[in-house]
């Protein structure tokens, strides 16, 4: 038995998320079907984390175990042979059996993109369409209250048994013409967490919420919920890190 680690990118527009679900098209489902054709085995892949419907990935990581042994770099070519056009395996490696795509990950990077200009149907699946001008400088100031280790229960899906403490190392916001890009670096992110944080920053940018109001949500550890979740289409799992974080 060998363990194979893979780096994959995908366009999430036409997937019902990463995780396999009966009667729905998923990234996991497509990859496992390809692996079954290659190995003649029922293989379950394990990803660094799930992405939801409409969310994209530039650097998602998954691993799987198999009895079939190929030259290391042939795995990329073999899997891509069976991949649809909206999934691409970027690289493959043999790893030790103690490696786990999810539990061995030490940090992640997400990026989010939004358009302040008029609605653009060409961009709509890849850049969230806000269609209003935002105070980007106020949004940058708002990121300061999110940096560090906090209980982000106010900014993630309800889960009474999950650990909602996370450490965010950096949040960068840049504007180029009418496109605003966000870069989140942290030791991990709960489900919907980046989208809720972006949603809160958008409210700051619209002058609907003050920075103090968002800080109260952070400090409340779930007592005050953020009710504004940014759209899935603008979100990308950009990179997964293993080992010590060094920006």
Keywords:
247 residues, Alpha-Beta Plaits, ten-stranded mixed sheet, alpha+beta, 2 domains
If you had to describe this structure to a student in words, what would you say it looks like?
The chain has 247 residues and is α+β, with helices and mostly antiparallel strands. The chain folds into two domains: 2-95, Alpha-Beta Plaits (2-Layer Sandwich), CATH 3.30.70; 107-241, 2-Layer Sandwich (Alpha-Beta Plaits). The chain is 21% helix and 30% strand. It contains five helices and ten strands; from the N terminus they run βαββαβββαβββααβ. It has helices spanning 27-39, 74-81, 136-143, 193-205, 211-220, and strands at residues 2-10, 46-47, 56-66, 87-95, 107-115, 128-129, 148-151, 165-176, 179-186, 235-241. Strands 1, 2, 3, 4, 5, 6, 7, 8, 9 and 10 form a ten-stranded mixed β-sheet that branches. Strand 2 (46-47) and strand 3 form a beta hairpin. The longest helix has 13 residues, at 27-39. The protein is globular. It starts with a strand and ends in a 6-residue tail after the last strand.
